[in-house]
Specification:
- By secondary structure, the chain is an alpha+beta fold.
- The chain has one domain.
- 21% of the residues lie in helices and 45% in strands.
- The chain is built from 2 helices and 7 strands; from the N terminus they run αββαβββββ.
- Strands 1, 2, 3, 4, 5, 6 and 7 form a 7-stranded antiparallel beta sheet that branches.
C-alpha cells in the first residue's frame, strides 16, 4: 500500500494494518476531521487504538507504516524511508526500515534493516 501511495502521490499519511484473532488481515486509517494532520498525531492515534485492541485480545498483531527520513551508517545525511512498526502478541516488537529514492515516477529501494525493541 505504501509503495502504491508513494508512486501515486509522492508521499502518504501513516496507515495501519492488523491481524484479528481469527487471522484476518485488514488495513485501517485514522481521520479526526483535520485535513492536514501531523504524521506524529496520526501515528500516536493508530498506536493507541491498536494497543487497546491488543489489551482487549481483539487482534493478534498490528503494524503502523509511515514515510520518514532516517540516518544510518549507510545514509549519514538521511534518506527517505518507509518505516514499519510491528507489534505481535507472541513476538518481539520490531521496526523495519526500507530506505528509498523516488525519481521519474519510480522507486529505488535500498537494503532494508530492522531493529528489535525487546
Amino acid at each position: 500500500m505504501a509503495e502504491k501511495l508513494l508512486l501515486d502521490q509522492g508521499e502518504f499519511y501513516p496507515l495501519g494494518a492488523y491481524i484479528d484473532i481469527q487471522g484476518e488481515f485488514s488495513y485501517i486509517s485514522f481521520h479526526d476531521g483535520d485535513e492536514f494532520p501531523l504524521s506524529n498525531t496520526v501515528i500516536e492515534n493508530l498506536q493507541n487504538y491498536f494497543e487497546k485492541q491488543l489489551q482487549e485480545e481483539a487482534i493478534r498483531a498490528y503494524a503502523v507504516t509511515y514515510d520518514s527520513r532516517v540516518t544510518s551508517d549507510d545514509f549519514p545525511d538521511s534518506i527517505d524511508c518507509v518505516t514499519i512498526y510491528i507489534k505481535h502478541i507472541d513476538f518481539a516488537t520490531t521496526t523495519f526500515y526500507y530506505p528509498y529514492r523516488l525519481k521519474n515516477n519510480e522507486i529505488d529501494f535500498y537494503e532494508p534493516w530492522a531493529e528489535h525493541a525487546d
